[in-house]
Write a structure and sequence with these properties.
The complex is a heterodimer.
Chain A (H helix, E strand, L loop, with lengths): L12 E10 L2 E11 L4 E5 L6 H8 L7 E6 L2 E2 L11 E4 L13 H13 L7 H13 L15 H13 L5 E5 L7 H18 L2 E5 L3 H4 L5 E6 L1 E6 L1 H4 L2 H8 L3 E3 L5 E3 L8
Parallel strand pairs in A: 3-8, 3-9, 6-7, 7-8
Antiparallel strand pairs in A: 1-2, 1-4, 4-5, 9-10, 11-12
Helix pairs in contact in A: 2-3, 2-4, 3-4, 4-5
Chain B lengths: L7 H26 L3 H21 L3 H22 L4 H22 L5 H8 L7 H20 L1 H16 L4 H42 L3 H26 L3 H19 L1 H10 L1
Classes of the chains: A alpha/beta, B mainly alpha.
C-alpha cells in the first residue's frame, strides 16, 4: 500500500507493532509506521482517535505497552531518549498559559534550554539562533512584545520559532490551526510547508482538519486507535477508506470537500 | 530614626530582613508562575508542626522544621504528579493535618513555651548572631541553586510538559523547586513567622506581575520589592515599636494594591473594554 523507497534508509521515526495507553485503556493499538527523513506527514483521525497519544509517544513522554518505538534509531522505551531536543514541538493551543508574563524573545530562547543542558548559560550565539528562528517565521520585529499581547496566529508563529530554536530535525505540530480564523489557518500551514522545504525538516502535523492539509502533505496517516491507512492523500482520502473511520458522519461534497458532520470545530 | 541604626540588634535584624526578603521574593517568582501559591502556606504550617515537635521532644527545632517541610512538599508534589487528586485538595488536607499536629504538640507541653510562639508570629528584631549566620548560609545555598538552575526553573514554570519534551529533566527540576520552597519557608520561619512567610513568598512576585510582561524584569522587580518591604517593615516596626511581622506584611500588601492601581495591564484592559 505505501510507497517503498528502493534504497532502504533508516527511518527517522519507526513504530513497530507499538501499543500505547494505560493498562485497561488502549489509546493506540498495534501501530506500525515508518517516517523517513524529510517527509511531510499529516496525521488525521476523529476525536479520541489517539492523535495526541501519538504525539506524546514521539516526544518520548510515553513508552509503548507492547511493541517498539525507535526515534533517530534510539529506543524511547525508557523515556530516556537523549534526542528529545531534536524534536521541535508545537503543543495544542490552550495547553500553555498565553498570558504568562514572558516576551517573545524569552519564549523563543526557551527552545535553547534543552539543547544547552544543565549548568550552561545561554550565550550570544543562542540569542542569535533565537532571533534567526524569529526571522524564519516573520516575527523578528516583535521580539520584545509580550506574548499575551499577540494575536492567535502570531502566537503560533512564536511557538513555531521556539521549536525552530532547538535546531530540530523533526517538527511536531499538534493541532496547529485550531482556534484560528480560516485565513490565518492557511498562513500557518503554508509557513510550515515553507519551513519544511527551506530547512529540510521532517514534519509531523496532527490535525482534525483534513481539507486544510491535504494539498500540503506528502503522506497522510489515518488513525482511529488503529492505523487505518497511510499513503499519499489521494490514496487515503477515498470514501471507502474514510467511512471505516468516520462512518455515516462523513459527507464528501461535489467539490471534493470532506465534511465530518459530528465535528463541532467545523462551521463552514 | 538614624540613631536606631547604631544598635547591633537593629543591624542584625535589617540584614536578616534583607536576606529573607530577597530569598522569599526570588523563590516566589517560580511559586506564583508555577501555580504553587497555596503550597507555601501548607509548608509553613507543616514546618511549624516540626518546630513544636522539636521543642516537645527536645530535638533541634530547625532540623524538625526542615524534615516536616520537605515531607509536605514531596508528598504534595508526588500526588500532583500521579494526578490522583487536585493539588489544592492534597495541600488542604496536609495543611490542616499538620496544623492539628502542631496544636497537639503544643498541648502536650507541660509548660507555656514562648519560643514556640515566636516561630508562629516571627520576630526579626530578636534574631541572634548565630541565627543570622544560619539564615545567611542557607540563603546562599537556596539562591545559588535558583541561579544555577534558573533557565530550567523558568521553563517548567511556563510549561512543564513542553520543558520535558524539549529535553529538560523537568520532573527533577520540579522536585528541586519544591525542596527550595521548603527550605525558604524554614529559613524565614524565625523572622517573619509561619503565618506571614506565605505572604512574603506570594506578594512581591504578584506585585511585580502587575508591572511587567518580561520574565527577567519580573524577577528583578520581585526581588527589589521583597527587600524594600522587609527592610522598610523592620525600620517602621522599630521606629513605632510595633510587631515586625505585620509591619512587613502590611507594607507589602500596600505595595501590591498600589501596583494593581498603576498596572499597565489594568490600563490596557480598561482601554480594550472602552
Amino acid at each position: 500500500m505505501t510507497f517503498r523507497p528502493l534504497i532502504m534508509s533508516t527511518p527517522i521515526i519507526h513504530f513497530d507493532h507499538a501499543t500505547f495507553g494505560f493498562p485497561g485503556v488502549i489509546a493506540l493499538e498495534d501501530i506500525s509506521l515508518e517516517i523517513q527523513s524529510g517527509e511531510f506527514v499529516g496525521v488525521i483521525g476523529p476525536n479520541g482517535s489517539g492523535k495526541t497519544t501519538l504525539c506524546r509517544a514521539v516526544l518520548g513522554l510515553m513508552a509503548p505497552l507492547k511493541g517498539h518505538l525507535r526515534i533517530f534509531d534510539c529506543a524511547c522505551d525508557e523515556l530516556r531518549c537523549h534526542h528529545r531536543a531534536k524534536i521541535g514541538y508545537l503543543p495544542q493551543k490552550g495547553v500553555v498559559d498565553r498570558n504568562f508574563p514572558v516576551t517573545v524573545l524569552e519564549t523563543v530562547m526557551m527552545g535553547r534550554y534543552g539543547v544547552l543542558g544543565l549548568f550552561t548559560r545561554p550565550s550570544e550565539k543562542d540569542r542569535q539562533i533565537a532571533l534567526e528562528a524569529l526571522a524564519h517565521v516573520g516575527m523578528k520585529e516583535h521580539r520584545d512584545s509580550a506574548l499575551g499581547h499577540l494575536s492567535g496566529g502570531q502566537q503560533q508563529r512564536v511557538f513555531i520559532a521556539r521549536a525552530l530554536a532547538q535546531q530540530p530535525k523533526v517538527l511536531l505540530l499538534d493541532e496547529p490551526t485550531t482556534g484560528l480564523d480560516i485565513t490565518t489557518q492557511h498562513h500557518v500551514v503554508e509557513l510550515v510547508r515553507h519551513l519544511h522545504d527551506e530547512l529540510g525538516l521532517t514534519v509531523l502535523l496532527i490535525t482534525h482538519d483534513i481539507n486544510m492539509i491535504r494539498s500540503h502533505v506528502d503522506r497522510l496517516v489515518l488513525l482511529k486507535t488503529r492505523l487505518y491507512a497511510a499513503g499519499p492523500p489521494a490514496d487515503v482520502l477515498k470514501p471507502e477508506i474514510l467511512s471505516q473511520v468516520y462512518g455515516k458522519d462523513l459527507v464528501i461534497t461535489e467539490r471534493d470537500t470532506i465534511i465530518v458532520e459530528d465535528y463541532h470545530h467545523h462551521h463552514h | 530614626m538614624l540613631d536606631l541604626l547604631a544598635y547591633d540588634f537593629i543591624q542584625r535584624s535589617l540584614l536578616a530582613a534583607a536576606l529573607v526578603g530577597a530569598l522569599c521574593s526570588t523563590i516566589g517568582v517560580f511559586v506564583v508562575l508555577r501555580g504553587l501559591a497555596f503550597m507555601g502556606a501548607g509548608t509553613a504550617h507543616a514546618a511549624f508542626a516540626g518546630v513544636a515537635l522539636g521543642y516537645l521532644m527536645g530535638w533541634p527545632p530547625l532540623l524538625m522544621a526542615i524534615l516536616f517541610g520537605l515531607a509536605t512538599v514531596w508528598i504534595t508534589g508526588w500526588v500532583e504528579e500521579k494526578g490522583r487528586m487536585k493539588l489544592d485538595v492534597s495541600i488542604g488536607i496536609l495543611y490542616t493535618a499538620t496544623m492539628a499536629l502542631a496544636i497537639l504538640f503544643i498541648g502536650l507541653m507541660k509548660t507555656y513555651n514562648a519560643e514556640v510562639y515566636g516561630y508562629l508570629f516571627g520576630n526579626v528584631l530578636a534574631v541572634t548572631s548565630e541565627e543570622l549566620r544560619t539564615i545567611a548560609g542557607l540563603s546562599i545555598v537556596v539562591i545559588g541553586a535558583i541561579v544555577l538552575f534558573s533557565k530550567e526553573l523558568y521553563f517548567i514554570a511556563f510549561d512543564q510538559e513542553m520543558a520535558e519534551a524539549s529535553g529538560v529533566p523537568a520532573r527533577r527540576i520540579f522536585f528541586l523547586l519544591l525542596t527550595l520552597v521548603a527550605l525558604t519557608v524554614v529559613i524565614s520561619l524565625k523572622t517573619v513567622g509561619a503565618i506571614l512567610v506565605f505572604a512574603m513568598i506570594l506578594i512581591p512576585a504578584s506585585t511585580a506581575y502587575q508591572l511587567t510582561h518580561s520574565l527577567s524584569t519580573l524577577t528583578w522587580y520581585s526581588v527589589l520589592i521583597g527587600i524594600t518591604c522587609s527592610v522598610g517593615g523592620v525600620l517602621i516596626s522599630s521606629y513605632w515599636d510595633i510587631p515586625s511581622g505585620p509591619a512587613i506584611e502590611l507594607l507589602a500588601t500596600l505595595f501590591f494594591f498600589i501596583a494593581v492601581l498603576l498596572s499597565p495591564k489594568r490600563q490596557r484592559r480598561t482601554l480594550a473594554s472602552s
